[in-house]
Amino acid sequence: MWWSSWLAVLVALLGVAVAAAIYYIIRKQSYWKDRGVPYLEPLFLYGIFKGVGSKVHVLSALQDVYNARKTSHPFVGTYMFTVPVAIVTDLELLKNIFVKDFHYFHDRGGYYNKKHDPLTAHLFNLEGQEWRSLRNKLSPTFTSGKMKMMFPTMVAVGRQFGEHLQEVVAADEGSVLNLLDLVARFTTD
Q: Please, are residues 124 and 138 in contact by the beta-carbon 8 Å criterion?
């Protein structure tokens, strides 16, 4: 009966692997507790995202966390599955992160795919050197002087778009409106 001893060893190894995985997840989900930061107690493996995607939208889950803790602390620790995430609830701290200390917080873990979904590769999702490169390209475009020069053009294009939209809706009442084409023309203008 040599196979029974192999089976016992295999079951023991499987038990050790499962115990190690559980220990790893529990340690990973104690990040905020170990640092003394206020946090929401995570559900095992899910964090605060149980039901996200099937019953609840991710923004609803984050909005609930924000509303629950917005007056008590400048930020709250939570978990996106097993990854620790800080949700900023103080506007002054958020301003520091997005403006003054932006170069420290450019890697935020947002989804982007430059090849298959290029619109997701914007300044808030890019990381590392790609982020720096795009920021260096965009910064000269949005100086206060250039924004003041662009404002009349943007207002004129917005008015023209509104007028055109009213004409199209009035002329083709009850028909299908190709909004994608209209918005593409508006953004091009």
A: no
Number of other residues whose CB lies within 10 A of the CB of residue 132: 13
- For residue 12, pLDDT over 70 is answered with yes
CB-based contact 75:88 (threshold 8 Å) = yes
Strand partners, 86: 77
So what's the pLDDT on residue 2? 62
Band of residue 101 on the pLDDT scale cut at 50, 70, 90? confident
The reported pTM is 0.56
**What phi, psi does 52 have (nearest 5°)?**
-70, 130
Nearest CA-CA partner of 40 in 61, 10, 21? 61
Rounded distance between C-alpha atoms, residue 15 and residue 9, angstroms: 10
Q: Are the C-beta atoms of residues 110 and 125 closer than 8 Å to each other?
A: yes
Contacts of 28 (CB under 8 A, 6+ apart): 82, 83, 84
CA–CA distance from 166 to each of 73, 132, 171 (Å)?
47, 41, 8
Q: Cα separation of 28 and 13, whole Å?
A: 22
